[in-house]
Amino acid sequence: MKRYLAYVLTENGLDVKQQVKLPVVFEGITLDAGYRIGLLINDLVIIEVKSVETLAPVHHKQVLTYLKLSGLKLGLLVNFNSSNISQSIWRKVNDL
């Protein structure tokens, strides 16, 4: 689903990057902690795609962590394992 979403967004004129490394800076040292942003849209919006029966609190925290580490303000958490996708999209904001 992630690749399909990336394709559709690109076809609609958006700049889409997939699996963007997100390093952690600790005491002035940059560490590769293994974090990867699922989709980064126009270097402004994070989209984290899931396909699970039920989202857990950790999924929501993951997006908030990515927002804080990246300094970005807006993220979306999307669960494609749903019969109604409009009820499976959560907007996350960082310090707004």
Describe the structure.
With 96 residues, this protein is α+β, with helices and mostly antiparallel strands. It is 25% helix and 36% strand. It contains two helices and seven strands. The protein has helices spanning 2-11, 57-70, and strands at residues 16-21, 24-26, 29-31, 36-41, 45-50, 74-79, 89-93. It has a five-stranded mixed beta sheet, sandwiched between helices. A two-stranded antiparallel ribbon has the order 2-3. Strand 2 (24-26) and strand 3 (29-31) form a beta hairpin. The mean pLDDT is 94.
Protein traits:
96 residues, two-stranded antiparallel sheet, globular, 5-stranded mixed beta sheet, alpha+beta
Summarize the structure.
25% of the residues lie in helices and 36% in strands. With 96 residues, it is of the alpha+beta class. A five-stranded mixed sheet has the order 1-4-5-6-7, with helices on both faces.
Radius of gyration: 14 Å
Fraction of residues in β-strands: 35-45%
Global mean pLDDT: 94
Query: What is the molecular shape?
Result: globular
Please provide the count of β strands: 7
